[in-house]
Write a structure and sequence with these properties.
The complex is a heterodimer of chains A (112) and B (114). Chain A contains no helices and eleven strands. Chain A has strands spanning 4-5, 10-14, 19-25, 32-38, 45-51, 56-59, 62-67, 72-77, 86-93, 101-102, 106-111. In chain A, the strands form two sheets. In chain A, strands 2, 4, 5, 9, 10 and 11 form a six-stranded mixed beta sheet that branches. In chain A, a hairpin with a 7-residue loop joins strand 9 and strand 10 (101-102). Chain B starts with a strand and ends with a strand. In chain B, the strands form two sheets. In chain B, strands 2, 4, 5, 6, 9, 10 and 11 form a seven-stranded mixed beta sheet that branches. Helix content of chain B is 4%, strand content 56%. Chain B is globular, with a radius of gyration of 13 Å. The chains are: A mainly beta (112), B mainly beta (114). The interface between A and B is medium-sized, with 26 and 29 residues.
Chain lengths: 112, 114
Amino acid sequence: DQQVKQNSPSLSVQEGRISILNCDYTNSMFDYFLWYKKYPAEGPTFLISISSIKDKNEDGRFTVFLNKSAKHLSLHIVPSQPGDSAVYFCAASRQGAQKLVFGQGTRLTINP
Amino acid sequence: DVKVTQSSRYLVKRTGEKVFLECVQDMDHENMFWYRQDPGLGLRLIYFSYDVKMKEKGDIPEGYSVSREKKERFSLILESASTNQTSMYLCASSLVDSWYYGYTFGSGTRLTVV
């Protein structure tokens, strides 16, 4: 049972445009969400997070939006840069949990 | 700079061999995890440990075991390697409040079983 789903395996975006990566979840108990970025042959690195008490969190070019009623979150990257080409994982957790639940990942390619 | 270090970046092993993957963290984290990453399947949890000598099965523990004799070290053992265990293996560590702080990952070990 996949509790966190990233339905787009890949996404291709022109440099300078907006990249939007989507993530859906099924467990209404999740109340904290994180995005990780992974380059080939490296481990994932933390990018940005959001608590369920918020609907938006910004950090520079990265913004995460949370729609609790739809159980949906999205990561916006503006403007997209070639260095953003990577696999992006969303993850969810609930307060007190020791484990994160990850989605399948979306491979983002930024074209020059 | 805080780190999670995995002993090997690339490994090639033969079917039936016993394989040890080692992971060391220097952040005094309580929790340590082993994941495998496969295309289309994302990150799947094999085992995790929340204290020395303590362990819990994750989603796909079959064919694997783990050892945590010291707080900083968490080993993944493939008892008898099989070709379907060819994968990228990722170790991670976290504070007790994983739900808030998230994980720090190692660079991964690409294991090929032939």
